[in-house]
Please model this.
Amino acid sequence: MASLKPFPALSRGDKIKIVTPASPIEPERVEKSISLLQQWGYQVELGQHVYDRNHYLAGTDQDRAEDLMNAFLDPSVSAVFCSRGGYGCSRLLPYLDFDQIAATGKLLCGFSDITVLHVALNRRGLPTLHCPMSLTLHYDREPWVHESIKNGLEGVFETPTAAPRATTVVAGTAEGISCGGCLVLLADTIGTAEPIQAKDRILFLEDVDENPHRVDAMLTHLLNAKILEGCAGIVVGEMTRTDEKSDPTIGDQPWREILKERLQPLGIPTILGYAMGHAKNMLSVPLGVQTLLDASNCTVRFQLA
Model:
């Protein structure tokens, strides 16, 4: 594992480049994020292929990868902001030089399918920001969501008082580097050249539109693959719209019960319902930074290098 790099916090006047590395997006769904970033004092530039469309992908794999590489290697750009997730980042792995990207020390912003990129860069010691994207910010959000991402871009991570509180699954405290993201993408990294590594770390988990039994399957995959062996602590966000996708023909079980059943036996500090993920309102969370989890009091604190 590479040594930990400083969190690449931004300053007013820095340039943020918006790219679309996964599914396509319409221009009108990017406008609000451009306006917000400009209001917060940043310059905003769009990748060449940001509005490309190739069926369920935002253009060809090569073009999406080229936009990412160009954004990171452009000396005038300080952060790379993803317009949306969806599907497609895993297809970019053969075309991206993650060592070169990590060496730039620049901030990657996004979540969902962007988890693939978070994992690869965190493995190289580069902290990233798990946060709302253009598609997310297109819709109305609670003020604390904007507060959290604005502060997060500046490297400030104080949980807004209005954000929902988590509940304890396993009490205790833990310390380690934060990692994780969308559960299905984390499971998909197993067996690749860029697998999730959770040993001695605080693992963050969330997902959307998965059946409860699929949440069970993916957690079981992490367990069987020994990914959770030696994990310091676990922070579970939302499994959005999972309960609604229960299949009564095979029997119902709420996803929160599944999480507890699969994770409690690990005996490590764990909380459930942390405000991150695909829920309407979400915190911006730094990945790849030193993290203190107090599962007894359901608090998470980040210590930036």
Summary: The chain has two domains: 15-153, 167-303. The chain has nine helices and 13 strands. The domain at 15-153 is CATH 3.40.50.10740 (Rossmann fold).
